[in-house]
Amino acid sequence: MAEDDPTSRMRRALAQVRREGYKVAVIYAVVDAAAVALLANLLVQVLPVPYVPERVALPGAIVPVAEAVGITLTDPAVTGAAVVALLAGLLTVTVEVGLRARRPLVEQFEAANPEVREALRTARDAVDDGLQSTIALSLYEDVLARLRETSSVGLVRRRRIAVTLLLVLALSMVSLQVAVYDLSLANLGGKGDQPGAPPATEYTGLRDGDAILGDPTDVSAGQEELNATIGTSGQGGGNASDVPRSYETGGFAVAGDVESQQAGFSGTEQLEDAALIREYNLRIREDSDE
Amino acid sequence: MSEQTGDVDAIQNRLAAAREEVAKRIVGQKDIVEQLFVCILADGNALLESNPGLGKTSMVRTIANVTDLDFSRIQNTPDLMPSDITGAEIIRESGGNREFVFEEGPVFANVVLADEINRATPKTQAALLEAMQEKQVTAAGETHDLPRPFFVLATQNPIDQEGTYPLPEAQTDRFLLKLYVDYPSFEEERDIVTLYTAGSPAPEVDRVLTREEIREAQSLARDVPIADDIRDKAIELVRLTRETEDVQFGASPRASMGLVLTGKARAFLQGRNHVSWDDIEAMARPVLRHRLLLDFQAEREGRSTDDVVGELLEAV
């Protein structure tokens, strides 16, 4: 049988129709698998799933392969959620392609192209029966001509694909939020535990500083002696550094632009508050002495 | 387009031309004319039931005229003998010698119109039906083949049933189709009166189809592919006639073959190269209506075999 006779071309056309059917099945399966994988990843991250490890080490053979393509893996491991997502996606692809391929692919094409349905079905059966009569060859020629005007686009339900892609997008956004804020429902219901809240503490008042610091010890002199000049905001004159004064008697009188780091000061314009802060510090010490 | 495909198109075009020629002389009755052509292409015979004066003879004669087929008409009467149909041996004298020579009867034609077959005796009916089935006649121990193509159109009158011999079901089953000819519409009857009461008695028709082309068309029609599911549905339809409650006796496998063959012939006649379910639906009633025997309940309710076939078409 010559390769270009109508029967051979009809067989090739039918094979092409079946391949189109497989392509459509793969499209549906991939889109659905993406949604399932994202959903599985999200659920594993948010909900307490038993028997799923935090991290799964990658096989050692992957490290040299990754380095060969310029990727340096400092920690060759992936999260358990990613592994679950990958497995769920692969399972979805396999099952969905298998289920969609169970229905004869040529019949699916016929349903999507009703104008050629009866002729294509008849030609398919005639080819299977090996019919070579004049009228059968005429049928093959006719169907081949009409198949050139048909399309397998009709096999794809675009609305369904669009909805699934929107779902994938939504799941992607939610997954990103979960990853950024490290949301988890794993410890939901514990005492004082709230997601994102600081750990609970028990405050019982100021603690004894001596107990914390321990016994005073003599320290050796510093390696350097520095002379510092601290300006004031108008109280008195002279060189403040020549007259050592204690903090209790007069506090620190500083000139304009020395940036004090006591009690949260941030600017010289707030230096007048130093007196207030000194007073509070004294009170704190009196309380601790008592 | 290959040469073979071109031959198919040429034959189909000639069949379409033949139908147009018939339409010049026969007003309306398009479904009946189509079914007659289907019967010819399927190499079958048809039983036509209609009241007198509805153009049955004209229709069949016109079909013969648009082709080069021989036409003969047999008017059945109670005194008609089988040999009047099939022929008989007669003594012929030539050159002083006498010999028996078989004189062919009117059945030796391509298109035979057997009018009022229910008026002939069962013996005469059997002779015609045997010739119709076997496509040959045996006389005096010799077998004579009938010409090909061979097509019998037998008619029955639904009125004037007194003194008639209704065909038994086993005999009617030999007819591929049973056709009902109804009265024409007002517009059609007006056209008939206008056509046949003015000018020449009958419009001329051209001969556009030869017997060889008809034989080729019959061969091509048998080769028209049919999808497996359509074929199985047709068979299921016939089987349902044996199982439905309204039918006392259902159709035989001969009906299954007839339904598929006529479906192929109709598809070919309409210029297609595959059988559609519409073809099976269109031919279901003509193929099955004379093969079903309704039970008493259905007859009492006034239901016809066409009604039952219609219900089965929806159920299949």
Major beta sheet summary of chain B: 5 strands, parallel
Q: Total number of β-strand segments of chain A?
A: 2
How are helices and strands ordered from N to C of chain B? HHEHEHEEEHEEEHEHHHEHHEHH
Mean pLDDT of chain B: 89
Topology readout:
The complex is a heterodimer of chains A (about 290) and B (about 325).
Chain A: H1 6-46, E1 55-57, H2 62-68, E2 77-79, H3 80-102, H4 105-112, H5 117-129, H6 134-147, H7 158-181, H8 209-213, H9 247-250, H10 274-289
Helix pairs in contact in A: 1-3, 1-4, 1-6, 1-7, 4-5, 5-6
Chain B: H1 3-25, H2 30-41, E1 46-50, H3 56-65, E2 71-75, H4 82-86, E3 87-94, E4 97-104, E5 111-115, H5 122-134, E6 136-139, E7 142-145, E8 151-156, H6 169-172, E9 177-181, H7 186-196, H8 211-222, H9 228-243, E10 247-249, H10 253-269, H11 277-288, E11 293-294, H12 296-300, H13 305-315
Parallel strand pairs in B: 1-8, 1-9, 2-5, 5-8
Antiparallel strand pairs in B: 3-4, 6-7, 10-11
